[in-house]
Amino acid sequence: MAEPYLRQSPLAHRGLDARIASDVAGAGLVLSERRFLAKVNLRGRADPAAVRAALGVDLPTAPNTTATGNGLVALWCGPAEWLLVGPAGAEGAIAEALEEALAGQSVGIVDVTEGRTVFRLSGPMARDVMSMGCPLDLHPRSFGPSRCAQSFLARSTIVLHQVDDAPTYDVFVERSQADYMLTWFETAAAPYGFAVAAEPAGAAWQRPGGAGA
User: Is the pTM higher than 0.90?
Assistant: First the structure.
């Protein structure tokens, strides 16, 4: 885990904050970066009840689904594998809570916060733009709210989470591919209008019975 004062977005040189639009109503694709979200990978035979007691969120059991609770999102990434996503700075406390709750169980708990950044995409053309470079069937009948998948976008590996019906997406991109993906989004959305929005506020995480983050 990087020290907070050393953290820097992989897009810091692109000056997204200076490009935030006051009105995004005319844009087909609206993008913001969700910087430094806590991301903890959990793999193995974890006791769902123990995880819920420790974090306040359920582990989704159906393939390619998500669960939300207590300021966290749990994404199903494979049989016996989940990605737990929370507010910036909470990764250490999340990992510690899991280690305590699952002590002695056959699990792996890894802080992967620094490995990816997250793009929040919205706007009336968000689904169309995503479909240009992603092989998933993103039609509402196949991929809707609370769905997630590991896939590719413009040949880059991603984790995709549909947040709501709008649709709004969170796209988890490898840090080394962030600059490339931003350029791809700008280019793909150019015919429809592209705008940068402020980073959305996230919910706080409160460790059950402990201090919040």
Answer: yes
Residues 121 and 65 grouped into a single domain: no
- The answer to whether residues 140 and 69 touch, using CB atoms and an 8 Å cutoff, is no
Residue 42, C-beta contacts closer than 8 angstroms, at least 6 positions apart: 51, 59, 81, 82, 83, 84, 98, 107, 108, 109
Residues 152 and 66 in one domain: no
Expressed as residue numbers, the domain containing 26 is 11-36+114-196
Report the distance separating Cα 98 and Cα 157, nearest Å.
27
Task: Based on the fold, state whether residues 109 and 168 are members of the same structural domain.
Answer: no
Of 75, 80, 76, which Cα lies nearest the Cα of 38?
A: 75
| C-alpha 109, offset from chain centre | 18
Between the alpha carbon of residue 132 and those of residues 123, 163, 185, the distances in Å are 15, 19, 10
- pLDDT tens across 172-181, in order? 999 999 999 9
Q: Produce one character per residue of 147-158: b if its CB has 16 or more CB atoms within 10 Å, e if not.
A: bbbbbebbebeb
